[in-house]
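Checklist before submission:
- one chain only
- standard amino acids only
- sequence pasted in full

Submission:
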Amino acid sequence: MYDPREHKLFIRARWRRRGIYWLPNLFTTVALFAGFYAIVQAMGGRFEQSALAIFIAMVFDGLDGRVARFTHTQSAFGAEYDSLSDMVSFGVAPALVVYVWALKDFASMKEIAHLGWLSSKLGWIAAFIFCACAALRLARFNTQLEVADKRFFQGLPSPAAACLIAGLVWAVNEYQIRGADVKWLAWGMTVFAGLTMVSNLKFYSGKDINLRKAVPFNVVVLIALAVVALVTFSSTLPEMLFILFAGYALSGYAIWLWELVKGRAGGSPPPAAPPS
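Returned file contents:
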């Protein structure tokens, strides 16, 4: 027998369920919009807003997966959408931002005119290396989800690489320094971040941290000190963010060197060197 009340409850539950599935994709859309916004702002010469937008994209990119797991709404569609969003926000956006900010000025440098056709293309070559490496990094990550060690990322994660570039742009811009004045630094940092993404270096993921379990007192003290430092030095936030992500980018090399020294001391074969 038809019961209109049961029918209404069914329709309401169905739409509520659809709403939950929309929730993680909404976070992904915000991250995608932030990456698109970063590109638009860079085209207008507003590089501080561009860098900030990339950091915002990183925050929402980190939230969408956690929201999906918390609400049990993981889906193949959400995973694919997240990867496409990451490519825009952490591949295309930082590459274009750093190109417009500093790398396009290589075309007007008389000092490297002897390089011929390469002199006018050094800038976009570095930007393309970053963009292509971000795509390769994301593709490799997606194909190794089931076999990868959850404690470590293989290669520098694309959000961290993007924030390294955004942090450089934001920190230098705080001192009223034009990108053209530090174009070689920007070029080297862009190529470094791109190649590190596709390296075999290990970067700590933090996925083994369980907030429901008790943590040592020292960890609580370190967290408190970090919060105090963030509040105290909030005026130097761009510099702090750049140093943070630069340190994280170098941590993979530090882990590799540590394992190399440890392997030699223990008599076991050293780990393979990261590709250059």
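Reviewer check: The domain at 4-212 is CATH 1.20.120.1760 (Four Helix Bundle (Hemerythrin (Met), subunit A)).
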